[in-house]
């Protein structure tokens, strides 16, 4: 196995939940944090043993996500990072990312986690328009973003990602353009641009159901997406994945693990993982998660073996999210089959429609295929 | 059994006027079912009926009732009747099995056209009518108004019983009236057997089961019987009565109601309206009124997945066991592949069959727009019946086209008369008659093309009269009209399953409406899809479905690969439910779009 491997740790706390978010997060209180830190320690120990038993296992990435990891105190968060880095065999120069929300961190906290080994920071900016930030239920203003960004740089971070969202309720092309321009002016190493997805069970989901959310229509959304691509490519960013842009050499190692269908350990409540051919999801509730660990059990909600066909499909579906696409030789090495043969019919149909390019070396989305990628992916989903 | 202690009756009521609730209450009051067994609307056995709150299958229940001051119980046979215009023939057969009828009228709604039509049917059968003014517990109840209506239609309002089936008020008086006012059955016990089949159903273990009312003679277990319409003979293996579940009986004499089981393999052996007689001592003449059910509405039924074709055939055969009025034959469509042309009594019947096929048999179906049967006379003089628009001949070989007409009878409060007449005119109606039943209530009669009624007439009627109008209609034969075939092209390719026959003067309007509607229903594809309506080679309307511009999950999921996959799987499922026509994916509802245009 030549694929890269990672560790994902979920920190399930937020000061307040944003109106669109359906991620696994809970309000912050001291007792919950204590219980969480104890649970994580137990979970680390279980995996430490498992990983130690596997010869040659080594990790390329550690990712602390949430929730809002920077809800934790600088001391707790730095302690957690140190513990993780010593528990698992990370390769020298491994990417260590921590998510942070503007407004929940300062230069001291950044310096503390930087010192603990975090070398990449991902800021949940979402928008640089105060009215839209308010509408999203975010806890920060555009000014907080600039301040956090400066603090991150002061704290020693030379690899920073900004998350941005578009297709927001009432958002105009003009507003999106301004947010993009403001983000580019900061010159982050990496930018992720996600379109707002309305999820059931969130305040946005409810409002949408009642017809109270005025979202940009499909054409406007498509234009905003194209606008992001044009602006960022123009500014020197490589558009390397459907929603991701990076300065040369600054692609996200951790996300590449997902897209290349590599394996990772997931720790924390609700975390997902993929290890030794099995996918699993941890139980979402922190109390049950902690209780399971206290009994010495892995806190799975479910786990299942991924068959060869499914692994092939996943490799295509996630690999095609990358603009460089799926490498035919590595696919062949991994599965002993040529993807152009395995998916012959779909590849032919999609090529004829001009959505896909299938060369001897790589299979990838065309420019035309990019905005309608789901239509491409379903062709790689076998029953 | 002593005939003087038998009463056979039915309930005539408009949908929602409380027939099923009243039947439930009578069952409960006579102890036929214990409150524990009581499920609401017990007589409506099928799940679908219960959901729609309507009765489509008749059943007969035997109630034992002892009036106050008497010691011996009477046998009351309650024969349930369907309440929809699609099933009027079945209604007439169940009326023929009775001597009396409860006319149930909603105290706040008054008499509806449907009720009136069935009342006239009942009077034709010389039934004793007991008016029941129901739902008098409602604040909006107007029993005096209903009494005036009763008087207008020739009934004695002083005989009306005020009741609330919901609370049980007046229900004992109803039972007493059944005994006192409805005559006991006549009939000749010594004459050869004559029993009227008023319903039937198919039982997988017992075969076809005939529900009968014995008129003359006696049928016994072991008797040899003969169906008078077909001459087929059988030996009776079982007889039963319903209370409400079947209880075996050794014989059924004159005036009695029950079921006959005789190893009849097919529901067609037990045709509603047929007469059962004794095979060894047959009657000279059958009971009057037998009529074969004639389907009025046809549509194509196609499996979305062509592999389901054999399953669809099996399912239709099974349904036909229970539904003698359903007809079908194989047909092929260039667009949809192999399927069946199916005939129904009406639109409701069609919807019920379609729903049962999907629900009970797990089929995923495309239903084409319903069509009536056109009578085409060719230039060579030959006559052809066309129930499928795609089979419509070239205009050059047509000498004359006729389409089926119905006589529609609409009851409406007088303030809506103008609106109703306008609608009928717009639907190519020919005014026949108008009469004031009361100063406020008017009956309007129009002759209308059945095709217009199939389209959206009833919905429009309801919306233009704020729901107050009611409609009844009966076929009155074919009439010559000026029709053309309109084709629909998707992405430049004609789709035979979307062709329809339209009135020439309305062709442009219909073409425009239909293409607009299709544009709403057909989702964006990876390319632009033109939708055209054409008569012959001439395009009369055009719309375009714009190309899909964005369909991509652009959200970070923290490695929740499973969830991303599930979303794609869901999308793939949705795609499977679509029909691929050439390069275009078309959802099922597109084929019914012609029905939902305004």
How would you describe the overall organization of this protein?
The complex is a heterodimer of chains A (383) and B (598). With 383 residues, chain A is of the alpha/beta class. Chain A has 2 domains: 5-259, Alpha-Beta Barrel (TIM Barrel), CATH 3.20.20.70; 319-380, Arc Repressor Mutant, subunit A, CATH 1.10.10. Chain A has helices at residues 30-52, 74-87, 107-116, 130-136, 142-154, 173-186, 203-209, 218-234, 253-259, 286-294, 308-319, 328-335, 339-342, 344-352, 373-377, and strands at residues 5-11, 13-14, 26-27, 59-66, 90-100, 120-126, 160-166, 190-195, 238-241, 244-246, 263-267, 272-275, 278-282, 300-305, 326-327, 356-358, 362-365. In chain A, the strands form 4 sheets. A 9-stranded mixed sheet of chain A has the order 9-10-8-7-6-5-4-1-11, with helices on both faces. A 3-stranded antiparallel sheet of chain A has the order 12-13-14, with no helix packed on it. In chain A, strand 16 and strand 17 form a beta hairpin. In chain A, helix 1 crosses helix 10 and helix 6 (173-186) runs parallel beside helix 8 (218-234). Chain A is globular, with a radius of gyration of 21 Å. In chain A, 47% of the residues are buried. With 598 residues, chain B is α+β, with helices and mostly antiparallel strands. In chain B, 24% of the residues lie in helices and 33% in strands. Chain B is built from 12 helices and 33 strands. In chain B, strand 32 and strand 33 form a beta hairpin. Chain B is globular and about 80 Å long. The chains are: A alpha/beta (383), B alpha+beta (598). The interface between A and B is medium-sized, with 40 and 25 residues.
């Amino acid at each position: 196995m030549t694929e890269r491997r990672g560790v994902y740790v979920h920190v399930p706390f937020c000061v307040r939940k944003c109106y669109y978010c359906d991620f696994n997060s809970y309000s912050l209180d001291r007792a919950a944090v204590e219980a969480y830190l104890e649970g994580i320690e137990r979970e680390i120990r279980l995996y430490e043993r498992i990983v130690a038993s596997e010869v040659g296992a080594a990790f390329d990435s550690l990712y602390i996500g949430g929730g809002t990891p920077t809800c934790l105190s600088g001391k707790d968060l730095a302690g957690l990072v140190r513990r993780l880095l010593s528990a698992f065999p990370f390769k020298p120069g491994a990417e260590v990312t921590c998510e942070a929300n503007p407004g929940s961190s300062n230069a001291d906290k950044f310096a503390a986690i930087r010192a603990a080994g975090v070398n990449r920071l991902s800021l949940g900016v979402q928008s640089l328009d105060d009215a839209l930030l308010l509408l999203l239920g975010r806890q920060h203003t555009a000014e907080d973003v600039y301040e956090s960004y400066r603090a991150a740089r002061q704290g020693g971070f030379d690899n920073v990602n900004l998350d941005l969202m578009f297709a927001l309720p009432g958002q105009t092309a003009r507003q999106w353009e301004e947010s993009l321009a403001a983000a580019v002016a900061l010159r982050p190493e990496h930018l992720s641009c996600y379109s707002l997805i309305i999820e059931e069970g969130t305040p946005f989901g409810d409002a949408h159901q009642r017809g109270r959310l005025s979202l940009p229509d499909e054409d406007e959304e498509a234009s905003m997406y194209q606008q992001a691509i044009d602006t960022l490519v123009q500014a020197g960013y490589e558009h390397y994945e459907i929603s991701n842009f990076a300065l040369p050499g600054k692609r996200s190692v951790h996300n590449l693990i997902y897209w290349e269908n590599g394996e990772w350990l997931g720790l924390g409540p609700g975390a997902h993982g993929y290890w030794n051919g099995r996918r699993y999801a941890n139980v979402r509730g922190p109390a049950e998660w902690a209780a399971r660990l206290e009994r010495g059990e892995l806190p799975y909600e479910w786990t299942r073996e991924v068959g060869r066909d499914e692994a092939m499909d996943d490799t295509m579906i996630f690999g095609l999210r990358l603009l460089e696409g799926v490498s035919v030789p590595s696919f062949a090495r991994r599965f002993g089959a040529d993807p152009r043969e395995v998916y012959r019919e779909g590849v032919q149909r999609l090529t004829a429609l001009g959505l896909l390019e299938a060369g001897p070396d790589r299979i990838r989305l065309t420019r035309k295929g990019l905005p309608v990628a789901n239509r491409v992916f379903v062709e790689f989903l076998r029953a | 059994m002593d005939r003087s202690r038998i009463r056979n009756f039915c309930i005539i009521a408009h949908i929602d006027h409380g027939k099923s609730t009243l039947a439930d209450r009578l069952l409960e009051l006579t102890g036929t079912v214990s409150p524990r067994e009581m499920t609401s609307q017990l007589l409506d056995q099928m799940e679908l009926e219960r959901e729609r709150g309507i009765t489509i299958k008749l059943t007969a229940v035997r109630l034992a009732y002892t009036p106050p001051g008497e010691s011996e119980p009477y046998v009351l046979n309650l024969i349930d009747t369907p309440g929809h215009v699609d099933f009027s023939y079945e209604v007439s057969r169940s009326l023929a099995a009775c001597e009396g009828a409860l006319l149930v009228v909603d105290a706040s709604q008054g008499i509806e056209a449907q009720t009136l039509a069935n009342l006239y049917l009942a009077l034709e059968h010389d039934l004793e009518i007991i008016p029941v003014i129901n739902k008098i517990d409602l604040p909006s109840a107007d029993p005096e108004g209903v009494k005036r209506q009763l008087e207008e239609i020739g009934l004695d309002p002083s005989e009306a019983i005020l009741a609330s089936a919901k609370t049980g008020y007046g229900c004992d008086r109803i039972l007493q009236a059944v005994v006192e006012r409805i005559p006991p059955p006549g009939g000749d016990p010594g004459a050869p057997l004559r029993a009227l089949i008023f319903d039937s159903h198919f039982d997988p273990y017992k075969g076809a089961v005939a529900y009968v009312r014995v008129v003359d003679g006696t049928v016994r277990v072991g008797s040899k019987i003969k169906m008078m319409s077909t001459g087929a003979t059988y030996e009776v293996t079982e007889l039963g009565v319903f209370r409400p579940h079947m209880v075996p009986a050794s014989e059924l004499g004159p005036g009695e109601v029950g079921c006959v089981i005789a190893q009849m393999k097919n529901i067609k052996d037990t045709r509603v309206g047929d007469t059962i007689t004794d095979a060894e001592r047959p009657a000279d003449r059958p009971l009057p009124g037998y009529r074969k059910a004639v389907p009025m509405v046809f549509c194509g039924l196609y499996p979305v997945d062509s592999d389901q074709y054999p399953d669809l055939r099996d399912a239709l055969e099974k349904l036909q066991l229970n539904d003698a009025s359903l007809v079908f034959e194989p047909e092929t469509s260039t667009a949809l592949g192999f399927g069946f042309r199916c005939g129904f009594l009406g639109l409701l019947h069609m919807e019920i069959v379609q729903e049962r096929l999907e629900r009970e048999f797990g089929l995923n179906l495309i239903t084409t727009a319903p069509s009536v049967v056109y009578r085409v006379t060719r230039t060579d003089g030959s006559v052809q019946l066309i129930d499928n628009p795609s089979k419509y001949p070239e205009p050059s070989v047509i000498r004359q086209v006729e389409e089926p007409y119905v006589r529609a009878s609409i009851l409406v409060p007088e303030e809506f008369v103008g609106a109703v007449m306008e609608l009928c005119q717009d639907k190519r109606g020919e005014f026949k008659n108008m009469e004031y039943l009361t100063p406020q209530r008017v009956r309007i009669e129009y002759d209308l093309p059945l095709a217009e009624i199939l389209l959206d007439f009833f919905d429009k009627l309801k919306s233009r009269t704020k729901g107050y109008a009611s409609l009844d209609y009966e076929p009155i034969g074919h009439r010559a009209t000026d029709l053309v075939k309109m084709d629909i092209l998707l992405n430049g390719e004609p789709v035979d399953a979307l062709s329809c026959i339209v009135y020439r003067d309305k062709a442009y309007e219909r073409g425009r409406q239909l293409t607009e509607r299709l544009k709403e229903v057909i989702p964006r594809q990876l390319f632009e899809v033109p939708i055209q309506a054409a008569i012959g080679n001439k395009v009369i309307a055009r719309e375009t479905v714009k190309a899909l511009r964005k369909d991509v999950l652009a959200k970070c999921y923290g490695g929740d690969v499973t969830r991303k996959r599930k979303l794609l799987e869901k999308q793939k499922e949705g795609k499977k439910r679509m029909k691929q026509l050439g390069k275009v994916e078309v959802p099922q509802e597109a084929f019914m779009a012609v029905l939902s245009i305004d």
